């Protein structure tokens, strides 16, 4: 007879190593699947004969943000090793080619949803592309979806998102006058930190995303976002509070690194610094004539 304590121990062990979501009714042997040829041709993204057709993409920015389950797929050989430099992996190269072809946000979102070069997609429930107004002058970029974002398919909708909304409201901003995305569109299991390989595989999509949106001001929320966008090694406590530059198609766009709302929830004393950074954003908006 199975002991309930053994089941609970097994459950706890899974939660501890980050397996906190059931993504299917039956267990999947990913190692066996990875050994089989992939069902997609890398260059076209088209399903191979006999493979299930991709879900049709709804049109329009709001419509495309409707949560669409990301179908778990086998890991492929194109995944980079964790110590590879950003952009050097086969997945990063493929991502750059696919993202570069997208001329609209809808096309970019479709390209991202059909991209299989990041293993996080296999464990995520949704691809989290963006929220807010893509015409907004201010674009905020966080780290990666958490549990709530993964379920709803939108960035910053959980507790840290609620705090972010309150912080933005203090300077007259909300989701109708800002645009929000993340470095990674898929949740890392158990909210662990993303690896360099995962960032390398997804960054070209975010870079193209920023190019297509062309915001007047950028905000990097948290260390992963700030370090990735600025290509810097220092932590967020050193980077925050000063305007930096992020180049978009040869033009520098002012970027303010800020503390992540999740960090502020754990360290409420740091809200003082976050408030200073919010005021710096408000002042810069006024200098740039942004309402
Ligand atoms: N944290 C992030 O960095 N992004 C989200 O979308 C949610 C939480």
Write a brief caption for the model.
It is built from 13 helices and 6 strands.
Descriptors for this entry?
alpha/beta, Uracil-DNA Glycosylase, subunit E, 13 helices, binds uracil
Account of the protein in words:
The chain has helices at 4-16, 30-35, 61-64, 90-101, 105-113, 120-123, 147-152, 159-170, 196-213, 223-230, 236-239, 261-266, 271-287; strands at residues 131-132, 138-142, 178-182, 217-221, 244-248, 251-258. With 291 residues, it is α/β, with parallel strands linked by helices. The protein has a 6-stranded mixed sheet. The chain is globular, with a radius of gyration of 20 Å.
Task: Summarize the SSE layout with pairings.
Blueprint: H1 4-16, H2 30-35, H3 61-64, H4 90-101, H5 105-113, H6 120-123, E1 131-132, E2 138-142, H7 147-152, H8 159-170, E3 178-182, H9 196-213, E4 217-221, H10 223-230, H11 236-239, E5 244-248, E6 251-258, H12 261-266, H13 271-287
Parallel strand pairs: 2-3, 2-4, 4-6
Antiparallel strand pairs: 1-3, 5-6
Helix pairs in contact: 4-5, 4-9
The structure holds uracil.
